[in-house]
Amino acid sequence: MHTANSTAPFLKDSKKVKLVECPRDAMQGWKTIIPTKDKIDYLNLLLKVGFDTLDFGSFVSSKAIPQMSDTEAVLEGLQHPIHYTRLLAIVANARGAEEASAHPEIGFLGFPFSVSETFQQMNTGAGIMESLLRLKDIFFMCKHRDKQMVLYLSMAFGNPYKEAYSIDTVVHWAQKMAALGVNCISLADTIGLATPSQIYNLTKTLVDLLPLTEIGVHLHSRPGEEDEKIAAVLEAGSRRIDGALGGFGGCPMAQDELVGNLNTRSIITYLEKHGYDTGINHEALAEAEAMAAEIFK
Q1: Pairing assessment for the beta strands 214-221 and 260-261 based on DSSP bridges
Q2: Which helix (H) or strand (E) holds 113?
Q3: Which CATH number characterizes residue 138's domain?
Q4: 21-35: per-residue pLDDT in tens?
Q5: What letters, b where the CB count within 10 A reaches 16 and e where it falls short, cover 92-117?
Q6: pLDDT per position as a tens digit, 173-226
Q7: Phi and psi torsions of 105, nearest 5°
Q8: Which of 106, 114, 122, 251 has the fewest CB atoms within 10 Å, measured from its CB?
Q9: Alpha-carbon span 78 to 42, nearest angstrom
């Protein structure tokens, strides 16, 4: 595939990396309900670590994701350092976006959009075309509510449903979103399929092709495979990486209990070993890891 030879304004040659911590992803599928107070205490620890963004909760149906039904109560308990770590909430429709937009503390609305029709139906209760209409409504709501949309392009590296997949399809949708005005797209390896070469090829293609769009990654992985994937992301020019402490969370469709979110500790260790700037408070990080070990026993 031909890509434009341009330099992204998102500092693809920079040593500064945006770390996005995703406790929401770690918690939402957890088998037992985590008490609201524990969530608040844990998130307040995470807010001291120095992450760029905290994916803290979601405004979705409590029937679909009961673990996230207390997101508003959790938000009320956060001691949020607005000057640094920014809050991101996941929404799946206009109603959820309205609820999230009512909170000035929330800077980002994350919307999951899949290139897989099957997964989009399963994940949001709407197909690709209906979801595109929802996305447009939410995007324009963001513009009028002083929020920024983060588009999660899920199943970006393949899917288990025997549906046709190609990098061209992913690029088509990324270009379409960028043309709409979405300026942050995170490529999601929803079930941990991607190899380092796939991660590099797709990420670099979009970094080069969409110089005005921030291209990030939200990867799932087995332990021991993380360093190669992180290296591929950085070599491709992306400077935005999602993770979760302990590697907890992930997608049940992976059908592999060892597949979880990239472990934030692994990301930080790799970045600092290779001279990247993380801005991490390691004392706060250690406290948060200790509490994560208690929450996710």
Answers
A1: antiparallel
A2: strand 106-114
A3: 3.20.20.70
A4: 999 999 998 989 999
A5: bbeebbebbbebeebbbbbbbbbbbb
A6: 999 999 999 999 999 998 888 999 999 999 999 999 999 999 999 999 888 899
A7: -70, -25
A8: 122
A9: 10
CB-hemisphere CA count at 13 Å for 194? 32
Three-class secondary structure of residue 72 per DSSP = helix
Measured over the CA atoms of residue 99, residue 103, residue 104 and residue 109, the dihedral's sign is negative
Residue 217's identity, in one-letter code, is V
Is residue 102 in a domain?
A: yes
State how beta strands 184-189 and 18-21 pair.
Answer: unpaired
pTM: 0.92
* 234 touches 19 (CB < 8 A): no
Whole-number Å distance between alpha carbons of 273 and 276:
8
- DSSP bridge pairs for 90: 58, 110
- What whole-number distance in Å separates Cα of residue 178 and Cα of residue 186? 12
- CA quadruple 117, 122, 124, 128: dihedral, nearest 10: 10
Residue-level length of the chain: 297
Which residues neighbour 245 within 8 Å (Cβ) at sequence distance 6 or greater?
Answer: 21, 23, 26, 46, 263, 264, 265, 288, 289, 292
CA–CA gap between residue 205 and residue 203 (Å, rounded): 5
Terminus-to-terminus CA distance in the chain, angstroms? 45
How many C-beta neighbours within 10 Å does residue 5 have?
8
Does 178 map to a domain? Answer: yes
Q: Which two three-digit tokens encode residue 95?
A: 């109603």
Q: Quickly list H helices, 1-127.
A: 23-28, 36-46, 71-76, 94-101, 117-124
Q: For residues 270 and 29, give the distance between their C-alpha atoms in angstroms, rounded to a whole number.
A: 27
Q: For the chain, what is the domain count?
A: 1
Look at residue 46 and tell me if it is in a domain. Answer: yes
Residue type, position 293, single letter: A
Tell me whether residue 11 is in a domain: no
Residues of the domain holding 129: 18-295
Q: Distance between alpha carbon 236 and the CA centroid of its chain, in Å?
A: 18
Contact 67, 100 (CB under 8 A): no
